[in-house]
Amino acid sequence: MRAIFGRLHRWAGLLTAGFLFFSGITGAIISWDHEIDDVLNSHLFDVSTKGPAIPSIELAKTIEQRDPRARVVYLFMTPEEGHSLWFFVMPRIDPATGKRYALDYNQVFLDPNTGAELGRRYWGAVWPVTRENFVSFLYKLHYTMHIPEFWGSDRWGMRVLGVIAIIWTIDCFVGFYLTLPARRRAKTARAPEVTRQLQRGFWARWAPAWTIKTSGSAYRINFDIHRAFSLWTWGVLFVIAFTAFSLNLYFEVFSPLMKMVSNYTPTPYEQRPYRDLDNPIEPKVSFADIAARAAADGKGRGWTTPVGAISYGPAHGVYAAAFFHPGDDHGAGGVGPAQLYYDSEDGRPIGERQPWVGTAADIFVQAQFPLHSGRIVGLFGRILISIMGLVVAALSVTGVVIWWRKRRARVRVRETAAMRLGRQQLTPAE
Asked: Do 204 and 153 lie in a common domain?
C-alpha cells in the first residue's frame, strides 16, 4: 500500500509542482495587492483636487462618451478622501463584425472632482508588464496562469488550476500518510502493557518526521524540509488547497455539489446560463435606475451603510449593488459587503446576499475566499498566507529535487546491473 501511495504522491507532485510554485510565489505577494498597487501607481490613485465630487454615474457616462466602444460594468459610488475613482469597462459589440471591439484597456481612473482622466490600464495584462499592471499581472497569474480565452469563455485558466487544486487536496492526505511510520504488529495477544509499548514506539518513530536534521547531507536536509514543512503546516495547506478548488471551480463543480448535498442559497449568477462574451445581454435599465432602487431597498431593510458600488454582468444580465462605506469593500473578515441583485431587463429584485448570514451551507460558501486569502483573521491571516505562499513554493522545489535524486539513483542502479550482465555475457564459459 505504501508503494502505491508513494507512486501517487510522486506523480501528483510532478504534475502540480510548476503550477503550485508560481501560485505560491504570487500568493505571497498579492496578499498585499492593494498596498503595493497604491505605492507603485500613486499617479492613478491619488488626487489633490477638492470636492464636491461629480456623481459617479455621470462620470461613467463620460467614459462611454469618450470611447463609445467601451461599456462601464463596475463603478464605485463614492470616492475615498484624496483618492481617484476607478471604473472597469468591457468592450461593446462591433456591428460590422458581430464580435467585441479590441480595447487595450479595461480600467479607467478619473479625478472625481473634475472628471479628468488620470490614466488607463489593462488589469491582468499578459504583456507588456509595466508598473501600472504589475500587481494585476501577478494576481491573474495566481489563479489563471494567464491561459487565454477560447471557445467564448475566459475561465479555462481557472478550470485548469481548479483541477490542479483537486489533485493537491487529495495529495495532502496521501503525503500525510507517507510520513507515518510503518505499523508494527505484536506476535502475541495485545495486553494493555504491550499496547502501550507499541504506542510509545509509534510516536518515537514518527517524531523524526517533524524535524530537520541540519547535520545531514544536502539531500537529507532537502528531504527533511519537504517532510517537516508539510507536517507542521498541513492544516493550513489543506485549507488553501480546498479553497483553491472551491473558488476556481465554483460554477462548474463546487456550487452544483453544494446544491445537491446542503441547504444552500445560490446567487443569480449560479441560476442563470452563461452567455458567450460575444453575445452579451443588453440591459434595459440603467445604473441610475439600479442605484435609486437599491438605496430604497437597503433603507427598507434597515441597512445603515450606503450603496458603495454597482456592477453589471452582461453574461448573466444581472446588476449587483454592494453596500459599504468608502474603502471598506472587503467587508468584515474579508467576506465582502451585503449585496442586492436586480434583473437587467426590468430592474426587479432577484436575490440578496448578507455577510455571515444564512444557513450553515451559505456561511461555509461565503467563508471560502476569506479562508483562502487569510482575511478571515485580519492582518495576522494575511501575513500567514504570505508565509504559506513561500512554503508552497519551497515544497514544490524540494519535492522535485527528491524525485530527481531518486530517479538518478534508479538509473544508476539499472546501468550498473546492465554493465554487470554485459560483463558476465562476455566472460568465456569455463
From this structure: yes
